[in-house]
Amino acid sequence: MTVPIDPIPIGGWNSASRVTSEQLAEYSTWERIPRYLRSEDTKMIYIDPYGNVTHLNGPHAGAEGVSMYQNLQGEQHLPIEQVLTESAYQLGATIERVNILKRIIDFRIFVGRPGMNNLQYRMAEDRWWAGQHESLPGWFGVFTRFSGWRWIQVWPMKTVDTAQKYDATMYGNNAAIWDVQWVAPRPYYSKPARYKAWKASESSEPKIDVDDGRTYYYGTVPVSNAGDMETYVTYLVEGAGFVKVQDNDSNRMVSSPEIFASDGTVMINSDPIERTIIAEHDAHDNLFYKIARSAGLFKFLLGGFGDRGEDIWERKYMRFMFTVPPHSTVSFDVQHTNPFGVITPIVFQRFKRSR
Which CATH number fits domain 192-351: 3.30.54, 2.30.30, 2.60.120, 3.50.40? Predict the structure, then answer.
């Protein structure tokens, strides 16, 4: 999983695409530079499932009629829980492991803006709540000059049920305050993934691999993990044949099943919670074929009708055991039997904190 947009659209008030030389000459000290150009404030934006951007905090907060208000909790630090064992004859406790939990973000929003009329308020309110879809995630982004943009995927955790003393538009107020709770099943923040492609056509002469006797083209691709959490490499493979890829930060090589031209682009993922290998043209199952295969008489009468074909992961078992350490650069060894093959290692950047 990587972030939605890089760079993100900042938009809003006072944004400028060009600074003239006369304006630049006036910025003789840091304090004379406009606040929105200094970028010293913590910026927070939300990109809803439909691509609409809402500036919640920072110089453009409230540009869309919704802004962060108070009581922000859970967005900054990684949610962890120590698992301990204690006994009657033990002094203190023993830490057995650390559980990393789902991230819960609680915050309060202010819907409205000075001078907003009734219709403008209704439009701003409708736009925000339409973007809080119970089944579709949005992206929450946090920016500081020190950490840059970091992103996390969020869903509404529960119904928003903040008690309202009066109608939001009573007496022309056109404003409301709501308590919102988000959940992030993957509790880490992300930056755009880093990657680099290797082409077999640009490598040296092929060599015979002593393990399987096949002839491979060899290459090494350095990719960095700038995050403060360990992560896993993903390989995009183009070209039919056999490949071998490095098991993250180790000297262990993992061989793939045979890749056919009909498979298309293949993705090899070393993350243990993901499917290890997926082909672009893997067979897709559906309810009709499941019913056809489960009906014994139907299958007997029509032979192999209902067979969906073979997924690439069914051809060979692949296992990865290591990780890419935080703040490190790993030189990934790759091998391909196809002289026109391409292998692209991708390292996703994970962060414990939002800033």
Answer: 2.60.120
